[in-house]
């Protein structure tokens, strides 16, 4: 998934690590491995998710269907974190310490926040 980034650099960067972590977190949110083929489309998991969140109620369709309705808001916030981590532009990705802080404050964030996925439309992949 980081082929474009890794072919220009022989050493890993924090942005690459953040992207990889975002993919791993996305696997948890989706309830399936990133390598599992999306049968109807030939997109990688990150591009597929970005397309889904840009349609009406698409972010809910991305979540693991086993997630209870009581945990749905927390998982939507976790999905938002994955979208930040897997930003198309590496410089737009958060640092790992920012990711950790976001995850640590997930519970308090979900008590008051409403997730707005429209912020990801500018970086969506067609």
UniProtKB/TrEMBL annotation:
GO cellular component: membrane
Keywords: Transferase
A molecular function (GO) term: ATP binding
InterPro entries named among the record's database cross-references: Kinase-like_dom_sf (IPR011009), LRR_receptor-like_kinase (IPR051564), Prot_kinase_dom (IPR000719), Ser-Thr/Tyr_kinase_cat_dom (IPR001245)
Domain Protein kinase: 1-106
UniProt cross-references to Gene3D superfamilies, sorted A to Z: Transferase(Phosphotransferase) domain 1
Domain of life: Eukaryota
Pfam family, one: PK_Tyr_Ser-Thr
PROSITE patterns named in the record: PROTEIN_KINASE_DOM
Protein's name according to its UniProt entry: Protein kinase domain-containing protein
Lineage summary: Eukaryota, Viridiplantae, Streptophyta, Embryophyta, Tracheophyta
